[in-house]
Amino acid sequence: MKKLGMFLLIGFMLAGCGGGDQKKMGQEYKFSKTNVKDENRIGNNMNYGDFGYMRHMSGDKVKTGNAVPYLNRQKLADMISDMVLQLPYIKDVGTLVTDEEVLIGYKTTNKDRNAAADQVKMTGFSVVPRYYHVYVSDEKGMIDKIEQYQSLNNDTEQIEGIMDQLILQMKKAPQGKKWNYGENENGEMNGETNSMRGQMEGK
Questions:
Q1: Which range of residues forms the domain containing residue 91?
Q2: The pLDDT value given to residue 134
Q3: Does 99 lie in the same domain as 34?
Q4: 90 and 25 fall within a common domain
Q5: Rounded mean pLDDT of the chain?
Q6: Do 101 and 165 belong to one domain?
Q7: Are residues 39 and 105 in the same domain?
Q8: Is the pTM above the cut of 0.70?
Q9: Helix/strand/coil (H/E/C) assignment for every residue in the chain
Q10: What is the number of domains present in the chain?
């Protein structure tokens, strides 16, 4: 009888452990289901705050002709303007983002115009892809001038010439420090021709 009692006790203990494992497995399954649901949500870009991840390994087939991922330029302009406004001595700012340029007009009370320009410019560079060029200006009326260009796009006739003229006006103001020996203050390389215009999705 004692042996039978011991067997029954061990059996109950094993059953209890098994129940715990099943409960744990159920939790893991629920967690996995949540992940799958989140993955679908990420794929549909429904959550702006989600991370993006892609792994490529040696031997994988290389895709060619991929379009450059679409950038929401309105959100980028909003983000840059908000960040620049948080800089010291900046009182007003307007930002225009194209497919390869960031143009920032601002008002500052900083007497060191070059230092202010460098801070504003580097803030723009911190947000956009590296192939972008950033131009800044604290000249009077530049914010209003930049605002007039917000309705233009890559389909606008002679858009490159129009933007080049605006950039030339902006470059009359201090642009901050040079990036390095091979790049000027705006991130332009010596003799560079930027081929990105017109290749972005969502012109």
A1: 73-170
A2: 95
A3: no
A4: no
A5: 74
A6: yes
A7: no
A8: no
A9: CHHHHHHHHHHHHHHHHHHHHHHHHHHHHHHHHHHHHHHHHHHCCCCCCCCCCCCCCCCCCCCCCCCECCCCHHHHHHHHHHHHHCCCCEEEEEEEECCCEEEEEEEECCCCHHHHHHHHHHHHHCCCCCCCEEEEECCCCHHHHHHCCCCCCCCCCCHHHHHHHHHHHHCCCCCCCCCECCECCCCCECCCCCCCCCCECCC
A10: 2
